[in-house]
Amino acid sequence: MKQHILVIGAGFGGVWSALSAARLLDKHSRSDVEITLLAPQAQLRIRPRFYESDVHKMFAPLDGLFDSVGVRFIKGTAEHIDELARTVGYRDEAGRWCTLTYDRLVLAAGSQLSRPAVPGLGSHAFDVDQIESAVRLESHLKSLKNRPVSIARNTVVVAGGGFTGIETGTEMPARLRSILGDDQDIRVIIVDRGTRIAAAMGDEIRPSIVEASEHLGIEWVLNTSVAAVDANGATLADGRRIESHTVIWTVGFRASPLTEQMSSVRDTQGRLHVDENLKVLGQEHVYAAGDVAYAATDDLGNFAAMSCQHAISLGRHAGNNVAADLLGVAPTPYRQPKYVTCLDLGAWGAVFTEGWDRQLKLVKEPAKELKTQINTLWIYPPAADRATALAAADPMIPVA
Length: 400
Known about the structure:
Blueprint: E1 3-8, H1 12-27, E2 33-39, E3 43-45, E4 59-61, H2 63-69, E5 71-82, E6 87-92, E7 97-101, E8 104-107, E9 111-113, H3 121-124, H4 131-143, E10 155-159, H5 163-180, E11 187-191, H6 206-216, E12 218-221, E13 226-230, E14 233-236, E15 241-243, E16 246-249, E17 253-255, E18 272-273, E19 286-288, E20 293-294, H7 308-327, E21 340-344, E22 350-354, E23 359-363, H8 364-378, H9 386-392
Parallel strand pairs: 1-2, 1-8, 2-5, 8-19, 10-11, 10-16, 11-12, 18-20
Antiparallel strand pairs: 3-4, 5-6, 6-7, 9-17, 13-14, 14-15, 21-22, 22-23
Helix pairs in contact: 1-7, 1-9
């Protein structure tokens, strides 16, 4: 009877886990281990690009790729993990309850935008967390031209001044003007709890964000947060009111709630603590990759961020090591000491830094060119060619 590797999730961590496991099995000429990937769709959705326009195009089909390397795809949504029975319960596309067994599991179910109990958040706010919600935002933006001219129509409020909030906010002036016209007075306001603009991003990168904001006419409202949302605007925690028909929530992310079903230690974002081989601590048969893994990148106290930059390498290592576990060969410990930041700043350009202290390397157009390469080439999956795909899944390939 064949042994079974089950991967949950078709994000960056899941896709690269499946490919890397297939690579190691191929390298050892083993056909007695089957790989299955369970996800709601056979698509790698390019989540880092959801702040852009034309969001409906931001995915890469995976059927041909999986077929080329012998990965079985099952369309469904995982809902229950039984770590003792080694089973995963899921709903198929018709809503029927089904069960899969596994010998080894790679949990790569990703993360979700945090949705606190802010009045009106669920019914009136927008986000760019998933492709469906980003498409909903884009449709809403296009519909604004059919509304009477008003301050609220022409104002976008972005709740949160972190990475997603900054990229969403700096892209918004050009998106609004393309819809409403260059003659309109556009307001984009980023609301953030920080005491300074982009305080959490560090002093090396802050001046570029400040300059880009001034150039693009983006306003920052600091030392407060969005406390309530309604159809006509946002009320802030300090009592101020901003009239707006478009409030975009970007505050905070949490690992998939599937991690809460594991009897293992989690961090404050719900990520599972893993060892250097990405095996979940306290588990014999479960590995984690991508946004559900709390993994040390080096020996200096740095841990992988919720980003495709880390998810790709985490996936390559988790897939390799879960297969190595079954084959009885040596694993490849996860290490990713190089860390970079490439932040899109709309029409102003971008900023590129290296290191966890974000040492400035490129700004404006040179950084924008690099960001475009990352977004349109580097983070996409390999071609549906067996040799090419398996070679690309080598965990020893350095990833920035």
